[in-house]
# Entry
Amino acid sequence: MHRERQPRSIRSLLMFGLSFVLVALVLWSVFSPSKGGGSALLPQPTATFRPGPTVIQAIQRKAKLETVAMTISGDTTVTKEHGIFGVCSESLTYLAYYEVSAGIDLSRISESNLQVSDDGYPDNASVVVTLPPPEILHNELDTANSRIVSQDTTKWVPGCSHEIATMTVEAQQQLHQYAASAAREKGILRMAETNAGEELQRLLGDVGYRNVTIRYASQGDPLPPSYLDPTPVPTVSN
# Structure
C-alpha cells in the first residue's frame, strides 16, 4: 500500500503547483498595467496640462500703467481793467503747484500690438509687444500749497466791482496748461514709456512669460537713470 500512495501524492503536488501557476498567470495578466488588463479595474494616472493666461489677458488685468509723476510749479500775473475808461484796475500773482502723471493705457493694446508664438503656454512662448503712445493721465492742482502771492486792487470807486475770484480761476487755467507743457518738455512721456516697458516685462514675467521684447511707439532709446529725477522748472509770467 505504501507504493500505491506515493504516486498519488506526487500527482497531487504537481496538480497543486500547476493550479497555482495558472492562477498567478491569470492574476498577472489581469492586473499588470503593461498588458493593458488593469485599465478596466485600476484607475490609471492621467496628465492634464492647463494653459496659462494669454498675453492679452495678462496685460489687460491692469487697465493703466501710471509710471511717472512730477510736481510742476509756476506763477502768473493776471491784470484786469474794467469800468468806465478802465478806472477799475486789479491784478494778482498766483503761484500754483500741479501734480502731473503720465503712463500708458493698456486697454488700448489689442492683438494688432502683439506678436506671440505659443500663446497661453508661457514656458515656450515668444512675445513682442508694441506699446501704444504714452499720455498725460492726471494734471491736478495742489490746492493745499497753491495760493495768491500778491494782489493789487484799486480803492473803492463807485461802479467798480472786484474780479479777484474770476482772475484766480483764469490764473489756474493758464498754469494748468503750462504744467502739462512743462512736463512734456522735461520728457515725462518718454520716461513713462520706458518705465511702462520695464513694468510690462515684469507683469508678464510674473505669469511665466520670460521671452518678452518691448517695442516703443516713439522708437526712442531708453533714458538713463539720471533723467528720472525731475529738476526745477522756471516759472511762467504773463
